[in-house]
Each structure stands twice: as structure tokens, then as C-alpha cells.
């Protein structure tokens, strides 16, 4: 996107994540919630929430031209996986305004419940309160939340499969099972670079990346995992045309139909 300057993106993001941590610690001390500082999963989720509070909206313009047309294809009953604070909620709102009834229900699958108040607020602000429901669950827990396998028309993953841990391939196959025959998976994910030198640079930064960014990884071959998730009627995914050689957060984008 920016040529060789793309190489400064991972170190810059890591630095800003580190600089967010003192704010997170101070917020717990000032509110008297000291226990949050002694439990790593709690601290990690809270830290990422504070980081994403500003980084999500700040980085959105870099990806909006790719993501907006993709989200406009959503229809029926939708699983929006890992929406965090809901920065793409306005795009869903626009889609519903343009074509009322095209989207019947949106489940925002967000295990980090610290984001749920923001999701509900965003849904209300964008005219989606009647169809949007945050769900505190991981992929393997969705049936227990009343979401049946084979019942979903659209699965959406935008910048989330990088953060699902070492069992990402299992998560992808699990989500595949929730799609109806003919259901679609809309994807925009940053993935491992196709270029050896940049891939090595990703690996160096990835030593710190998952710890500082709530489990996110830079070097996951998400595109191949999606292709192998199950039997697809059609696969139309590939590199984002905007990505250049030096892109340290290259993306795969497109649509798969079960």
C-alpha cells in the first residue's frame, strides 16, 4: 500500500500497544479494580479493549474501500465473528437501509464481553437494535447459545481469524458447519506474506505480536485454512489487489459458497 514504508507498520503497532498498557493499569488503579491486574486473561482483554478503542477507528480508513463492498453482500441470518467494538456497524446499517429485509438477524460473536456495551450502542445508533444480538461465545460454543448448525446464511470474518489461537483450522471448520448449503462466507483477513523476505520480517515481529495484541498472529495462512474448511460450491478469494510487495499485513479477500 505504501511501498517500503509498509515495513514500519508492525513495529509502530507494537509500540502503540505497549504505550496503551500504562493507561490500562492506571484505569484499574483509579477505579480500585486491582484484581484485574493479577489475572492475565482479564488484563489482556482489558488492554486490548483500550488499544482497540482508538486503533480500530483510526485504522478503519485504510481498509474501508475493501471491506465496505464485501459487507454489502451480507444477507439472511448473519454470524459476524469477532466484531470487537463494532467499527463496521455503520456499513451494516447502510446495507439494511438500502435493502430492508435482506439481513434478518446479525449475531455478533464476541467472547470479550467488555465490548458488548459498545456493540449494543453501535447497533442502536445505526438502526440495527431490532436485529443485532451480541453473543458471548467461541465457535465451539454456539450451539449451546441456541444457534443451530446449518442455519446460517452468511458468515463474516474481518480481522478476526488471526486471533483465534493455534486451533484456528478447527475453528474455521466449526464455523463452516453453521452455514446452510448455499450459504456464503465473506472474508477479509490479514495473512502470511507470499514473499520470503517479508515473511521472515513477519516472523520476527510475531515473537511479540500475539502477547501484545490479544493473541493476534501475523503469519497465519488463513486463506489455505478457509479453502480446506469443507466442500465449497465456489471459491473466489485471493490477495487484496491493493497489497504491494512490502505489505506486512497482506490480506486475503473474497467469498466462499458452501
UniProtKB/TrEMBL annotation:
> Which Pfam families does the record match to this protein?
Methyltransf_23
Q: What is this protein called?
A: S-adenosyl-L-methionine-dependent methyltransferase
| CDD domains, per database record | AdoMet_MTases
Q: Which InterPro entries match?
A: SAM-dependent_MTases_sf (IPR029063), Thiol_S-MT (IPR052356)
Amino acid at each position: 500500500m505504501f511501498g517500503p514504508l509498509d515495513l514500519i507498520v508492525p513495529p509502530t503497532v507494537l509500540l502503540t500497544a505497549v504505550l496503551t498498557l500504562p493507561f490500562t493499569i492506571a484505569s484499574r488503579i483509579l477505579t480500585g479494580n486491582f484484581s484485574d491486574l493479577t489475572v492475565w486473561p482479564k488484563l489482556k482483554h482489558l488492554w486490548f479493549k483500550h488499544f482497540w478503542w482508538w486503533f480500530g477507528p483510526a485504522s478503519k480508513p485504510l481498509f474501508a474501500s475493501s471491506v465496505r463492498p464485501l459487507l454489502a453482500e451480507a444477507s439472511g441470518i448473519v454470524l459476524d465473528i469477532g466484531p470487537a467494538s463494532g467499527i463496521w456497524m455503520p456499513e451494516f446499517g447502510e446495507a439494511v437501509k438500502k435493502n430492508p429485509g435482506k439481513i434478518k438477524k446479525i449475531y455478533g460473536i464476541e467472547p470479550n464481553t467488555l465490548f458488548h456495551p459498545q456493540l449494543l450502542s453501535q447497533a442502536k445508533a445505526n438502526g440495527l437494535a431490532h436485529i443485532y444480538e451480541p453473543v458471548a461465545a467461541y465457535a465451539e460454543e454456539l450451539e449451546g447459545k441456541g444457534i443451530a448448525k446449518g442455519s446460517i446464511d452468511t458468515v463474516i470474518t474481518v480481522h478476526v481469524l488471526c486471533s483465534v489461537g493455534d486451533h484456528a483450522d478447527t475453528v474455521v471448520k466449526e464455523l463452516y458447519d453453521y452455514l446452510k448449503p448455499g450459504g456464503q462466507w465473506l472474508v477479509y483477513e490479514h495473512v502470511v506474506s507470499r514473499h520470503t523476505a517479508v515473511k521472515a520480517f513477519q516472523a520476527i515481529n510475531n515473537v511479540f505480536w500475539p502477547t501484545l495484541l490479544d493473541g493476534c498472529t501475523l503469519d497465519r495462512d488463513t486463506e489455505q485454512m478457509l479453502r480446506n474448511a469443507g466442500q465449497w460450491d465456489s471459491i473466489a478469494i485471493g490477495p487484496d489487489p491493493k497489497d504491494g510487495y512490502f505489505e506486512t499485513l497482506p490480506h486475503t479477500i473474497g467469498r466462499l459458497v458452501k
